[in-house]
Amino acid sequence: MTGSDRFSARAAAVLAAAVVTVSFSAIFVRLATAPALIIAAGRLIIATLIILPPTIILKKGELRRLGRVEILLAFIGGLFLAGHFYYWIASLQMTTVAHSVLFVSTHPLFVLIASRLFFGEKISPAAFFGSLAALAGIVMISGGGFRLAYGGLPGDFMALTGAVMMAGYLLVGRVLRPMISTLSYTVIVYGTAALMLTAGALLGGIPFYPYPCTDYLLFAALAVIPTIFGHSIFNWALNRYSATLVSLLFLGEPIGAAILAWLIFREQPEPFFFPGAALVLAGLAVVIMGRARCTGPGKKPTVPPR
Predict the structure, then answer these.
(1) What are the Cα distances from residue 306, in Å, to 64, 74, 75, 173?
(2) Is residue 198 one of the residues assigned to a domain?
(3) Is residue 166 a contact partner of residue 158, using CB atoms and an 8 Å limit?
(4) Most buried pick, 19, 231, 256, 288, via CB within 10 A?
(5) Which domain holds residue 203?
(6) Structural domain tally of the chain?
(7) What is the per-residue pLDDT across 61-73, written as a single tens digit (0 to 9) for each?
(8) Does residue 303 fall inside a structural domain?
(9) For the chain, where are the alpha helices, taking DSSP H only?
């Protein structure tokens, strides 16, 4: 992580709110009846339509100045985001929630490895062991999800693929966010993901209508709460904190989702949920306090020549 991984009280509150909002994703997906591709596409179409007008008004000049490198990187980020949402939502329909949460939450490992290989980031022992502790807590929360359920293996694989896609999305954001504003980056990434998912649905012959009215309300809820007030805040954070730290903050999502499921669906948490949640939070605290520094790539990337 970079030396800038120090939270002000305001930043900590904003990021904590983002973790709470993304925790609603699993709840809304669980309530929807539409296919995974339609849920993911509907979510991002609405999110894009909401943020497009203010982006055009406030960032019109910046959008015109964007070079091919920035646009290409944002496009790649959108592809990763589309893949993440599709594979994660599909996994929820093919395997247990515990397995899905466990495997999709492994993305910090991929970010750690890629940050070391491609960006030369050095992770301190405190940050490394804090990350392992947080991931161990996720295993406890999932009820020991490594127990194989043969009928759910395809869903497990899809959740793991969703984790790889999330890692790619965060790493692209790490490179690109210092080059362009949050609004410009977000609208391009969300728009690209929406187009890719829509194209996938059309090519696959999956209709966008008819579904119950509640499904369309859930698409809107997914767009506003966990996407605009969740993922967009993490996009903002990628310009201030390392991709590793932002990735680890997402591990608060399964804790929030389990608590919300307990309150809304009366689903009792797994027996080791509370110790696991405490381990996740302790691991995150160790990572943040460790403030592992990265070498040269920790500096903000400069805009390449156009």
Answers:
(1) 13, 15, 17, 19
(2) yes
(3) no
(4) 231
(5) 9-298
(6) 1
(7) 998 888 888 889 9
(8) no
(9) 9-22, 24-31, 36-65, 68-92, 97-104, 107-119, 125-141, 153-176, 182-203, 213-222, 232-237, 243-249, 252-264, 273-290
Taking only the tens place, the pLDDT of each residue in 98-119 is: 677 778 888 888 888 888 787 7
Reported as a single tens digit per residue, the pLDDT across 208-265 is 988 999 999 999 999 999 999 999 999 898 888 888 888 888 888 888 887 888 888 7
Tell me which residue has tokens 């993490």: 234
The residue count for the chain? 306
Q: How far is residue 202's CA from residue 195's CA, in Å, rounded to a whole number?
A: 10
Backbone angles phi, psi at 11, to 5 degrees: -65, -40
DSSP for 233-302? HHHHHTTTS-HHHHHHHTTHHHHHHHHHHHHHT-PPPPTTHHHHHHHHHHHHHHHHHH-----GGGSPPP
CA nearest 85: which of 172, 9, 157, 25?
Answer: 25
Query: CA dist 112 to 120, 163, 181, 273, 294, Å?
Result: 10, 13, 25, 25, 12
